[in-house]
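Thread: Newbie trying to understand structure tokens

Hi all, I'm a second-year student working on a class project, and my supervisor (Dr. K.) asked me to get a predicted structure for one chain before our next meeting. I've only ever worked with sequences, so writing a 3D structure as a token string is new to me. If someone could post the tokens and maybe explain what I'm looking at, I'd be very grateful. Here's the chain:
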Amino acid sequence: MKKKLILDVDTGVDDAQAIMMALTDPKVEILGITCCHGNTTLENVLQNTLRVLKVCNRLDVPVFGGCAKPLLAPKKHAGHYHGEDGLGDAPDPDAPGLELLQKKNAVQAMIKIAIENPGEVTLVATAPLTNLAVAVQLDPSIPEKLKALYIMGGNTESRGNTTVCGEFNFAVDPEAAYIVLDRYTCPTYIASWEFSCKNSLPWSFCDQWLGQNTDKAAFMKQISRYSMTRAQSEDYQKETTDGQGFNSCDTYAMAAAIDDTFITESDEVAVTVELEGAHTRGMMVLDYMELLGKKHKAFVMKKVDLEKFKRMLMNSLK
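---
Reply by user tm_fold:
Sure, no problem. This is what the structure looks like when written as tokens:
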């Protein structure tokens, strides 16, 4: 049986990389892609998702529009890194039109798909967790219907990339992250910011990856140019944790969802999100001392099979 996935995305460059990995894996069936604000505006996210599907010849995959803003926090985007449109501001005059989108709201679609496939669907969340938080408030039973949840977000060493102590996806909507980590009691796997930095790939691999003679590789090279120039800058290297290479943050969570053997070491620990700190709002908190009394624990990734990761990335652009 194929793995049934729902992808919840805010399609910037790394979401595009993750989506393409899932689309090209023969073991995967994508039941729907739900879109959320985040790297760019919701309208751009929807457009970007369709652009990725088009280059992969998979416009048959249903795409749903979801939450356009955080639950309580002010809007924040990542145009400084991904480009204002989320895909490096690379022109695309032949981009698919938004009329291809599904009419159903992303949150409603997420709930419906989970109900129709009880215990079979893995949810991969690479965006701020707003859609997931709204879904569990509308249907508190959704976590028990999921097979697993994979999240790219949060941090483990209080090292931020958006605020002093906050990773982007959690810092953009801390209340949503808090709700999801509190109420989604299905098996939960987290690829944190510092983890992804410590598992970055050599730039020489990136050149090989983008150098493949395919339409997909040409598309990825075009949309990645802006963010990769930023990532290779001296200022950015100072901001990151051991970030001396190519870091496709979202794709680690996707690879783990696709292949059960990808994660080679993880910590099983209860997690929550700080909501009130002057400097720590949005920071993920790991309860190693078990003072929170939470029964549900998440698997926080520490090490993965990077050779397998390289192969999956190479295949995604073939």
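A couple of things are worth pointing out once you decode it. The first strand starts at residue 3 and ends at 9. The mean pLDDT is 94. Feel free to ask follow-ups in this thread.
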